[in-house]
Amino acid sequence: xxxxxxxxxIDDDEGLRRLTRRVLERRGxxxxxxxxxxxxxxxxxxxxxDLVAVDHYMPGQDGLATLAQLRDLPSAPxxxxxxxxxxxRIAVAALKAGAVDYVVKTVGEDFxxxxxxxxxxxxxxxxxxxxxAQAEEQLRASNERLQALLGEVNHRVANSLQLxxxxxxxxxxxxxxxxARAALEDTQRRIAAIAQVHKRLYTSDDxxxxxxxEYLGALIGELEQTWSTPLSRRNLxxxxxxxxxxxxxxxxxxxxxxxxVSNACKYAYDAATxxxxxxxxxxxxxxxxxxxxxxxxxxxxxxxxxxGTGLGSKIVRAMADTLRTVIEFETGxxxxxxxxxxxx
Length: 344
Prior knowledge:
This protein is of the alpha/beta class.
């Protein structure tokens, strides 16, 4: 019996109160009675009832005033409102005031059947809402655990990539051959570009997308420190609109930017000539973005053969393939202009 729903019935009619309790107890409920609105509110403030039924006509304080006080309780119970047979206006007012249902008081067993049915339906709705709230809370907690796990994974990946980058740097410094050292330094920068993505993910509340303005700002800052020297100034300028990309797309864009900017810094200008490299990221359409890297240097070689080993060009094409796009080279005028359009 202790698990039975606990009901409070408030009515100034002593005979009807007692009869209601007997009928509802036979149907499996635990029932407490109150003869007035203030008494019922005081009882509900002390006891966590599963449901309260309130009669409208009561001396001193009517049902609507009692309903308002019940709704103001810290843990307000669901309320069923009991009205007379000609009181549809009052029933509507009670529903607007927060009652979950209403029952018309009639003579005979019909009233008790209607009241019991309304109680059953109200309690079922409460259980459904409670189950929904519990499921949502469990889902929220699960999402938070997953977010924390993904953040930790990205943290570990970033740390591991930074460690690999440090090993490559140490190996490069130990080499005598200049070409081999340059190749390892290029590899180190490619690793750093990927590590920056994972760093953005674990330091952000969003572990699924990367803020490209922030990411490219950090990446280009590192590239400028690498390529700009007192004897060979390279001014890297970023113009980025707010764009967020999924992790794999952010990695591809970051590597492309690394290759194009590094290539421009190495080959667009003479070693002793300062020069600008501009990186622009903008929305092309609501579902796509445009990346553009340009300089004012010597332009593409006349024979069309890339400087260096050509590995950077292959990497750029491979990353463009992952973005399902193609690299566009603009000719005419000084400098080199490279762009691509990719999907968000």
